[in-house]
Amino acid sequence: MLLKRLTEAMGPSGFEDEIRGVLRAEVEGHVDRVYTDVLGTLICEKGIDRPGPRVMLDAHMDEVGLMIVHAEDNGLLRFRPLGGVDPRVLVSKPVRIGPEKRFGVIGAKPIHLQKPEERRKPLPLESLYIDIGARDKDDALAAVRLGDVAVFATRYEEIGEGCAKAKSFDDRAGCAVLTEVLRRDYELPLYGVFTVQEEIGLRGAIAAAYRLQPDIAIAIEGTVCFDVVDAPGHGQGTVLGRGPAFTLQDGRTLADRRFLEFMIHVAEKHGIPYQFRRVKGGSNDFGAIHRSRAGVTGGSISIPVRYIHAPAQVMSLEDYRNTVRLVQAVLTELQEGGFRG
Amino acid sequence: MKERILEWAGYVAPSGSEGGLQEALLGAVREAADEVRVDVLGNGIATKRGEGPHVVLVAHADEPGVMAIHVDERGFLRLISIGDVPAHELVGRQVRFTNGVTGIIGVEGKVKREDIGFEHLYADIGAESEEEARSRVPLGTAGVVWEPLSEIGTHRLAGRALDNRAGCAVAAEAFLQLAALGRRVSVVFSAQQAVGARGAGTAAFQLNPDLAIVIDAAPAGDMPEAPRMALSLGKGPCVKIMDGTAVVPLDVKDHLVESARRLGLAIQYEVWPRGLSDAGAVQLSQGGVKVGGVSYPARRLGGLAQVIDLRDVAGAVRLVVEAARSW
Amino acid sequence: MTHRETLRELMELHGGPGFEEAVAARVKDAFARYTDDIRTDAMGNVIARVPGDGPAPRPRILLSAHMDEIALVVTEIADGGFLRVWQAGGFDPRTLVGQEVVVHGRQPLLGVVGSKPPHLTTPEERKQAAPLEDLFIDLAMPEERVRALVTVGDRVTLRREAMDLLNGRIAGKALDDRASIAVILECLEVLRGLRHTADVLAVASVQEEVGVRGATTAGYALEPDIAIAVDVTFADMPGQAPDESFKMGKGPAIAFGPNIHPKVFRGLRDAAERHRVPYQLELTQGPTGTDARAFQIARAGIASGLVGVAIRYMHCSVETAAYDDIAECGRLLAHYIAGVTAEEVARLTCY
């Protein structure tokens, strides 16, 4: 199961080794050439000598995580976040650490010992530790090295009606879409790019876009969705099950209107549901790509994901399938010359 | 000059929606240029081949604004900002979208004035249903908070988007004069400045200038209890020393000061803490670009309407032409 | 002249972001001991090339230390000739009160950052630190003379003689980051006695303190195979987090994290261990606040590293470093460079 293999692999920003290996294995045989750049971004070439616009499809393979930075005398590990982690979601969660994927738990002072005013305040990062069961500092450092990274220990499972939960749908969902898209052939020069370090500033995409100089780029992203109880319509970002979302404006991009209208046209022509991402905050790799060199046209296609950046994220499998269909349809229309920049 | 500024300030051109304005701006320079284009990010660029180093004049065309992001079941629009727009100042104001639709901005009850954020605002465009609102203002349509333009006093203009339509007028006029002198010169009416100088970066990459002069407004500090800024209206154009994006190289600064001295032109010096301009994005393009800045003081910069002095604007044209001609 | 003496001179020179010329001239002079191939680019970065041995193409390794220091700039000449200022780089305004400064007007002028004496302050005032906007510089001359000599936009830098402390430690202003220029000089000295195939591009970069601007264009223009930023880090002080507290005199810190190419990190660490250079591990979790931040994403990406010595009181006029750390950091870089081969460089893109 592709989504399971991708979401359960480890790969915090800058430490994407395991997920990169998994993705390489998934795409090999379906593309002409696979290589990495100096930051570790995985670049897949497919028919790059064909005529037509050079298209870059982007999905970032990194995820938010934690880095072990210090061992206390009692064997508890101090950590710092890699990417945007809300400390409030960490308490009482298990993590997996380092290349051996050792288990650790993030505990908290028992509620019995907390003062009433303590209970009302979120626990700051400085007061949280990872416990790997070590007896003392030496015991801890025999099992874990400083600089080792950790991710949430969450299994991929299908839940509810047509949904799945896992860690890192942001952006392994996009990686899965891109993987499926790359398994088909298109009549245009195509670069499938699994970038690194998106969560700490779109850094993989900056270098990759400069290298590839695409004519058109599309970022495929797991995006914020908060269609839950008490959230007003304009505070939801996206709605689960209503299809892939187009960006109008986010923290780093104002939509290229011509390409946005083209994608809307493709979705309508192919009967694929779509929605708009209705929130300004957040961003994705297209925010870096469109500013590369003399500027790049394109846009982003996002899959709604509830509880993004948290240990258990929820996605609609129908949204996922519709995103695969939409990206394929966009490529088909591009190869037919449907977009005139 | 004044006519151009007033005409161009009449366009609704929030960041990312500069298209209509660019036609007008490029129309003013088209005949003098060898090449005119609008690029991927929406920059309007005109180039004249000629003698000397390639001098590029950069003036942003866009302005901050709002975007329709949601329609509720009764036909009220919800908005997000484009660039930096103070939410609490929008209550009761008129919004005008790029397609001409207008509305009034309201705020949810029970929100204290100091707590007002965009999530509390809505626009009433007179729609009687969700469908009507959606068809008149499709999601993603951008607009501005409308403020009328007026001539006040003897030399001054007040109104919306004077920052930086006045700069566009300076850049266009300087381009025409330099082209007539046979100089090698380009003008960039940059897009998406208010969201972080996005257009200027890609434009500089394309043009790789020998010298770039950024023309923009800078905050005046000559009002009652104004934040401390040494710039006053009517005392001449400003030579940029530094803002939040760039420190102007000393040789460029000295050249601008020397150019003003030759003209006998009074100037002011702009040190704008945290100020945002296109200068940084241009300077850091490729292996580095020599960048300078010529500004005109504007009162209430960052507010919905600004006040500028046409004498400063006219001085800016003379300074830019002299500095570019002699570089 | 020893490089320690050169460092003392560099520390006493004045050069904030965008006006590094005086420092640049002294740095060029110091680099001239190792190469004739020295130039200055459009931004003002000084670039010295020390060629390696053997046939081209050779690996190209960039070392950068920024030569700018945090500085102030005059925003207003107020009544009485007192100067108001803003900053280029991040000051703690509390450290400025009572500070001697140099105002770079028509001629260099000595000034003092004024403070209200305790006799005149209320108990409330004493509890609050004045923000930068409320500080003023006193040139102790009549307003007309100030106006004749100073213009809005003139630069202001800290004034501080370099001092020798116990145990070979050195104190003064601008150790951030001129200590790292001394590191590069020590590196080039050691490298003279070693065989190295790599070309070394020694860069004294500009405008780091306002957002790694010099490194942004230098990385783009020079496009080396490996770029190593040399920059100072935090020495231990009571109350600092354990992973942000390095020991002075215990060798350079070698950085590890997403901003650092894993093979460059391993190469530096291995060189330290092979040549018995004491070192400390600096863990980072995102783009660092150093030139390495810009190098890593210049063009299609550059393999980046970060090393540096720990200093106390960063961004004050009494920054303090252990010179032994500076010398050891130079030795580390020299041995690392001597070990880099073309085959290794070719493998930097292999993950």
Automatic annotation (TrEMBL), chain A:
Any Pfam family the entry gives: Peptidase_M42
InterPro entries on file: Peptidase_M42, Peptidase_M42_aminopept, Peptidase_M42_dom2
Entry annotated with the keyword NADP: no
UniProt KW Metal-binding keyword: yes
Residue numbers binding Zn(2+) 2: 170, 199, 309
Any one Gene Ontology molecular-function term assigned to this protein's record: metal ion binding
Highest taxon in the source lineage: Bacteria
Cofactor: a divalent metal cation
Name of this protein: Endoglucanase
Species whose genome carries this gene: Alicyclobacillus macrosporangiidus
Automatic annotation (TrEMBL), chain B:
Keyword Hydrolase among record annotations: yes
Keyword terms: Aminopeptidase, Hydrolase, Metal-binding, Protease
Cofactors required: a divalent metal cation
Cofactor: how and how many bound: Binds 2 divalent metal cations per subunit.
GO biological process, one term: proteolysis
Binding of Zn(2+) 2, residues: 163
Family annotation (Gene3D superfamilies): Peptidase M42, domain 2, Zn peptidases
GO molecular function: aminopeptidase activity; metal ion binding
InterPro entries (UniProt xref): Peptidase_M42 (IPR008007), Peptidase_M42_aminopept (IPR051464), Peptidase_M42_dom2 (IPR023367)
Binding site for Zn(2+) 1: 60, 163, 216
Family statement: Belongs to the peptidase M42 family.
Name of this protein: Endoglucanase
Source species taxonomy: Bacteria, Bacillati, Bacillota, Bacilli, Bacillales
UniProtKB/TrEMBL annotation, chain C:
Entry note: cofactor: Binds 2 divalent metal cations per subunit.
An example Gene Ontology molecular-function term: metal ion binding
Binding site for Zn(2+) 2: 176, 209, 315
Active site, per annotation: 208
Keyword terms: Aminopeptidase, Hydrolase, Metal-binding, Protease
Highest taxon listed in the record's lineage: Bacteria
GO BP term, example: proteolysis
SUPFAM superfamilies cross-referenced by the UniProt entry: Aminopeptidase/glucanase lid domain (SSF101821), Zn-dependent exopeptidases (SSF53187)
InterPro entries named among the record's database cross-references: Peptidase_M42 (IPR008007), Peptidase_M42_aminopept (IPR051464), Peptidase_M42_dom2 (IPR023367)
Cofactors, names only: a divalent metal cation
Residues given in the record as Zn(2+) 1 binding sites: 66, 176, 231
Record family assignment: Belongs to the peptidase M42 family.
Name of protein: Endoglucanase
